[in-house]
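Repro:
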Amino acid sequence: MKERRFVREVVESKQRILILSFVVGAVFFLLLMRLWHLQILRSDDYREMSENNRLRFVPVAASRGAILDRNGKVLVSNRPSFSLAVVPQEVLDKESLLTQLSALLGLERAEMDERWRKSMGRAKYYPIVLASNITRDQVEILEENRLRLPGVEIEMKPVREYSNGTLASHLLGYISEISEKELNAEGYEEYNSGDYVGKNGIERALEMELHGDDGGRQLEVDARGRVLRTISETYPTVGNSVVLTIDSAIQKQAEQAFGEQAGAAVAMNINNGEILAFVSNPGFDPSLFSGKLPADIWKGYLEDKRRPLENKALSGQYPPGSTFKVITALAGLNDNRIDDSTSVNCDGAYTLGTSTFKCWNKKGHGTTSLRKSLRESCDVYYYQLGEKLGVDKIAATAKAFKLGAPMGVELQNEKSGLIPTSEWKQKRFGKRWFHGETLPVAIGQGYVLTTPIQLASMIATVANEGTIYRPHLVKRIVDADGKPLRETKPEVIGTTSFSKESYRLVKQGLYAVVNESGGTGAQARLYDVKVAGKTGTSQVVKMRDSKQGTPYQFRDHALFVAFAPFDKPEIAVAVVIEHGEHGGSAAAPIAGRILRAYFDGKKPPRKEPSAAPKATEEPEVDEKAATLEESQDSGDKSND
């Protein structure tokens, strides 16, 4: 029985092994047949399908951070725009494709060729931007013809929106497509052709903060461009936002005050260096530079004699004219060449050797003290003081106020101005300094050059009696959620060693300029705030034809510097009107309007005064000097 059972089990085992072997053999046979079918019968079909499944990288541009004023008003934001891009590996005939695009969209063939050339060497699945900021009509045409245009894509990118038009255009700057030079420059390694970058102003100075990090998706698509699957994906990071120190309400009033006149103005917080208004007039439309700038507009900018593309507040260099008398007066007080009782007789001119130096008032100012010399801007007073001091002592005082060197604000291309010395002339021209050259320097002419931002810093330093703050435009940097990342703290870049008495005497003279009869800056006067300031008129050419009308480009520049309130200064202003001729009539009213905007902004909302408030307490004055000069007053009219 046992033997039979054993035999039966062996037979059954052999049967199971035979069945299993048959099943395994059948499976392997089927696999071989499938492989034969795929690799032999359908090899050509599957090879074509494989080649038609391609990788494609779809970039997702990051939104740039916003730019806001000190009160949180948005000055620059973003809007969507469309770009025409092409994936090189999907293009069978480049020349034919570009010809079709040019005909369909009206694009320049040469420009598309150049963009393609610049992008050579990159991965063939990475899109090349052939045209930026295309119109919605062009987008519709591309969509209608998509099947005839293999490899063509429409990309959406955020571009800048300057909702306030030309407001603060030189400060804000503009963005445009990255250049080939920038692509190869250090710091731009993560940028690609077709990306937008800041070209000037804050947009350029804080590019790395504003730009953000681009994202993208790597896709597998078929021959028709249909997405098969997403291989990888990274999300874009919005750029940080910038909060500026300027007040857009003051900025707007300042720009409107200029009208069509060319020039610049800077308003600054005296106690921390924050710039409250930064004007260069005329401005330009920064939104035009995001796309292709129309040829007629570009030509108009270039041919405009007022130079609308120049940032005059930062790089405009002007003789400071009589505003520089503040420096000369402090130099004289510091060197004990003058005091509050020193006076000279002005008969309309001063002779040194064989040269005669005229005062702006041909009739003369008569007996003139320091206070009157500032109030009525007597040139003869400063001719004589300059002769006593010499150019190097005047220059030392000017440089103590950081004149003649960049102030170090956040923007690029700041000019340094020029404060001449005897050593400078020897190096520059190989000639010694002559005494007669000092006299024009004493009244802010000759070789002296300053920028509007330097003049604002100068008068701010006089107002706070010796502390020089670095002017700055950025209040803080915040992330996309508004969380502060970096705060700009006031930076003291120097202090002066002049006595409080010297500052007191000069400031009294500046008060008289605006508030006393005969003062040249009466048009900057405010009814409720005591303003102190100094007018200036600087020559553009040495001699003018008084019989014929002076051409615009040869007229004198008009300047005015001021601070307020007199008793407890808060704000300093410098205004330059190119070819405005008279500081008192052209520049002073603009400064007054800027100051008015500042103090109106400090008033509680919806509480209008029913009557003019009482005047603030008069500053301490020298009654004896004022009495002595009363008979010499020449009225409010003045060339300065």
